[in-house]
Amino acid sequence: MKIGFIGTGVMGTGMILNLIKNNYDVTVYNRTKAHAATVIDAGAKWADSPRDLAQVVDVVITIVGFPQDVEETYYGDNGLFKSAKAGQTLIEMTTSKPSLEAKIAQTADAKGINTLDAPVSGGDVGAKNGTLTIMVGGEQAVFDQMKPILSAMGSNVNLFGGHGKGQHTKMANQIMIAGTMTGLSEMLAYGKAAGLDLSALVKTVSQGSGDNWSLDNYGPRILAGDFKPGFAAKHFLKDLRIALQESEKMAIPLPATEKAKELYEKMVDQMGLGNDGTQGLVKLYRDMKTD
Amino acid sequence: MKIGFIGTGVMGTGMILNLIKNNYDVTVYNRTKAHAATVIDAGAKWADSPRDLAQVVDVVITIVGFPQDVEETYYGDNGLFKSAKAGQTLIEMTTSKPSLEAKIAQTADAKGINTLDAPVSGGDVGAKNGTLTIMVGGEQAVFDQMKPILSAMGSNVNLFGGHGKGQHTKMANQIMIAGTMTGLSEMLAYGKAAGLDLSALVKTVSQGSGDNWSLDNYGPRILAGDFKPGFAAKHFLKDLRIALQESEKMAIPLPATEKAKELYEKMVDQMGLGNDGTQGLVKLYRDMKTD
């Protein structure tokens, strides 16, 4: 089965290398060709546009940046829908709007094309090691057919319901992380102000009922002054905005997530730290302190 | 060494049983004597007041409810300071105000009495199993002397600095948990509204970067409709109020923790659910939904 892959960023690169390792024939496209060098060196072929790519493969996987990039990839003048045809399958792995996934599914359905929404968690490390969590929405039969391909990239691959449910599951995951990241940032801000040994604090909290992945992974990085992105704050902010738009549509107020979004807006939009990792949120509190 | 123990609630009972198991001679006092039956059956002696208790022991441990209970226990007409004398040690294990701990330390110091503040985390299970995390503030020499006693109750016993630093560490711990509890509640509220299988959601999120203790322990309880307190919401709200008073004193705004406090205020003060466990916060969202 020939696979087309659009998006050779940090996530896409790891995922493509795992597909190649599993002997899939992979053709790639990326807006900036230079960023595809690693995977081309590893054996991937190149297509000049999504439109060209869809003409030479059976399955297309997309993982790009923002919802507008997804829109362009599928609906642009050189987009997938200009050439995709009945019997093909499009797998959208960008974390994006459930409503956009529904629109893509509808367009595809009218043409006899199959789609899945399949956003991931697990970061660059999970992409590299093939241990991503993949949250899928779509039809059971299509899921079953695509599962071997998804399993080449992830170790925890599950169908959560019809079109858009993969995205909804990812949004719920991000809402949980909004809590761990704000809690971690404010815990450290408080601890620093109170004159505590922050290393000892992180260790003690992680041994009790405050333990969490963000604390274990980002706590030590923050104390070492390492704000390199495992996951860029600008992308997390995008996710929180989508989650809150969706919750508003469903008439479910999420005040703590709303507050987290406001804090990430300050970090990304006002302080210009969108390319920092999500752990950079703690910088907000240092600045707040010196106000 | 003779130990006096004030407070035979859920936490105190487990802690006292572990002291007795470690062959300490324990005398207890509790405002409601009936609640001391379990430990008296296990061999603890009874004193009629904190004042009486301090006359017959070397070390007094206190773990009561709210800061006003601590105040009464130490400074009341029948309080500890009415009879405590030089050479004794008072260990305050209630989660309480760092400023009150400082005041107790000052009063004690003037009388030649040693003090430690030593709040705990780990809940009723940790108290029962002797695996509490104990966060200590005070002098190194006093800590070293008391460590065997503390180690009979906890498996993770550390000194974090001078008087009040134990309480500050506990506050930082609660700030972290405010994040995991709000995140968990809003994740489930969103997931329910989006029609996701919540068991599958909890399982998937716990396998990735959203994993945390609250999710693992309270997620399944919430889905089973179990809101029994591991830790009562009214006590958690007390802790958040103290944390925010302290952060205000230090001029460190903690907006996400402030939001968490507001949500727990709605749950405890408006909905009257203070005796539910902290996981009852999710009920707020169900009600918000049906508004």
Automatic annotation (TrEMBL), chains A, B:
Keyword Transferase: no
Enzyme superclass (EC): oxidoreductase
Residues covered by the 6-phosphogluconate dehydrogenase NADP-binding domain: 2-159
Gene3D superfamilies according to UniProt: N-(1-d-carboxylethyl)-l-norvaline Dehydrogenase, domain 2, NAD(P)-binding Rossmann-like Domain
E.C. numbers: 1.1.-.-
Record domain 3-hydroxyisobutyrate dehydrogenase-like NAD-binding: where: 164-283
PANTHER family: 3-HYDROXYISOBUTYRATE DEHYDROGENASE-LIKE 1, MITOCHONDRIAL-RELATED
Name of the protein in its database record: NAD(P)-dependent oxidoreductase
Record organism: Nicoliella lavandulae
